[in-house]
């Protein structure tokens, strides 16, 4: 979908569908004041009959009968204007998604959009509208039979608004949506296709597109030799290769020596290993690389976002399978930083590969770390399907990521990193055990396990086990399937840091 802007009068716009976004605080006459008198009267009458009050996500459609170039007018409510900028931005995403769905229903190819004149932050508005339009149009149909008649697609959306700040936001929203879409594509692929080798292939393709991004990787044999005991152990049962993938972005003009690492869990399939999962728990385990997909989605657009500091993307990619050489309960593994771990459940594997990746990041003298992982079912039990949990050793970093999530429309809630729970990870024969002795709080104890591998480096852990995958549409712009959660939040966080430098 092509997104453009124009200074055309709404009543003269040569579009199939003309959409008008309105706050409920705005008088209806003002919303449609630019229309011909007869058409305006008809719409006002219909809005009274249908009790259209421009509440959030409320839609009113009206056929113009040739009175405008557009054959259909769509009024979409944004709700109250007396709300925070974050909530208004989310209403714009939802309204844009509703417009996409309505236009597709009527097989429109070109749509025009009229925004409220009293929007305060036009850059944010532009980004939100672009994300709502593009992400709601996302479909993964690679493996479906091609229909005899191709589905009609919206070719262009033109915003009848020419403000430069809005244009900047619109461009940024397109860029971010491309990153989210790549992450969704990677997660939606079957595990038989999206192997560790193919995750590495995607990383190579990203690095090849820009001189600002370099790639280094280690395969299974190299990982064993260099002491990555967690990844090596988890991947033992699979015939697929394992990889540690290290992408490095260095800006052309570096304003600051800051080095941030984004670490993604890349379990391309998790059977649970010898502590095998029940079959219904295994159905969506191709999604256990959603953290890695988010990191790759971010790196695919990083040269367009242009942070003025180094960003490192570190992905631990492997499979967890119950093969003849699979790691066994009772085994002891040595992590990259030389700490030993007693394995009591082979299905608690994500923390082992992340421990290696975190230890490696510390060796690179990284100054801030954000890890993104589908780590625990306990986080879903605590927060449900739509909210990610966050924990960390630096409250400022955690707060900034939560703020970034609010701005981007991704829901994140902080869980306590309770120090008293640390003793539940104590092993009698190793430095740590990979599961705790407690009955609950496993999302917290998993984070406490990871904390042992970051030293004092500011670190935040995003457990995206819930919102990585949507069994049904999460909202208007997130269909069922892969969500691409984390891309928008982390990009927003990088923007915050860039602004402060």
Structure in words:
- With 501 residues, this protein is an alpha/beta fold.
- 36% of the residues lie in helices and 19% in strands.
- The chain has 15 helices and 19 strands.
- It has helices at residues 28-31, 37-49, 85-105, 122-136, 164-188, 196-208, 220-225, 229-234, 279-282, 290-305, 350-363, 377-383, 395-408, 442-451, 487-500, and strands at residues 2-5, 17-22, 59-63, 72-77, 110-114, 156-159, 213-218, 243-249, 259-270, 310-320, 332-334, 340-342, 368-373, 388-392, 412-414, 432-433, 459-463, 469-470, 481-482.
- Strand 5, helix 4 and strand 6 form a beta-alpha-beta unit.
- The chain is elongated.
Summarize the structure.
Helix content is 36%, strand content 19%. It is built from 15 helices and 19 strands.
| Main sheet makeup | 8 strands, mixed
**In percent terms, what proportion of residues is strand?**
15-25%
CATH topology of the largest domain: Aminopeptidase
Query: Strand tally, please?
Result: 19
Give average pLDDT, whole number: 95
As laid out across the biggest beta sheet, the strand order is 7-8-10-9-13-17-14-15
Low-pLDDT windows of residues: none
Write the layout of secondary structure elements.
Elements lengths: L1 E4 L11 E6 L5 H4 L5 H13 L9 E5 L8 E6 L7 H21 L4 E5 L7 H15 L19 E4 L4 H25 L7 H13 L4 E6 L1 H6 L3 H6 L8 E7 L9 E12 L8 H4 L7 H16 L4 E11 L11 E3 L5 E3 L7 H14 L4 E6 L3 H7 L4 E5 L2 H14 L3 E3 L17 E2 L8 H10 L7 E5 L5 E2 L10 E2 L4 H14 L1
Keyphrases for this structure?
15 helices, Leucine Aminopeptidase, subunit E, domain 1, 8-stranded mixed sheet, 19 strands, Aminopeptidase, alpha/beta, 2 domains, 501 residues
